[in-house]
Amino acid sequence: MEGSHELFSHSEGVVSTRYEDGNTVVFVADFGANDVAVDVVNDTVIVVTDDDQHEFEVPAGETTAWANNGVVTVEVQL
């Protein structure tokens, strides 16, 4: 897998890693919060932390997102 670092959300400054492998794109970001919920609506991923909400667009495709210990992983099958 080829990886590159980029800002997950410019306004919040959360740093993420994006990996691409064939028809799959994976985003991983550590929000550093205890309580994190994540949802996908169309091509938008919504991350809700303790007191904040972050939204970002992902490429069109079958998207799966989950959170574990403040780390959000989003996988898009193109």
Structural features, described:
- The protein is an all-beta fold.
- The chain has one domain (about 1-75): Sandwich (Immunoglobulin-like), CATH 2.60.40.
- It has strands at about 1-10, 15-20, 25-30, 35-40, 45-50, 55, 60-70, 70-75.
- The protein has a 5-stranded antiparallel beta sheet, with no helix packed on it.
- The two termini are about 15 Å apart.
- The mean pLDDT is about 85.
Write the layout of secondary structure elements.
Blueprint: E1 2-9, E2 14-21, E3 24-30, E4 37-41, E5 44-48, E6 53-57, E7 62-68, E8 71-77
Antiparallel strand pairs: 1-2, 2-3, 3-8, 4-5, 5-6, 7-8
In short:
The chain is 0% helix and 67% strand.
As a percent range, the share of helical residues equals under 10%
Q: List the secondary-structure elements in sequence, H or E.
A: EEEEEEEE
Query: Which segments are poorly predicted (pLDDT under 50) over 5 or more consecutive residues?
Result: none
Number of strands: 8
Query: What structural category do the secondary elements indicate?
Result: mainly beta
Shape: globular
Strand arrangement, largest sheet? 1-2-3-8-7
Strand content: over 45%
Quick one: biggest sheet? Answer: 5 strands, antiparallel
- Gap from first CA to last CA: 15 Å
Q: Report the CATH C-level class.
A: Mainly Beta
**CA radius of gyration:** 12 Å
Could you tell me the CATH topology label.
Answer: Immunoglobulin-like
- Tally of alpha and pi helices: 0
CATH architecture: Sandwich
**Average pLDDT taken over every residue:** 86
How many domain regions?
Answer: 1
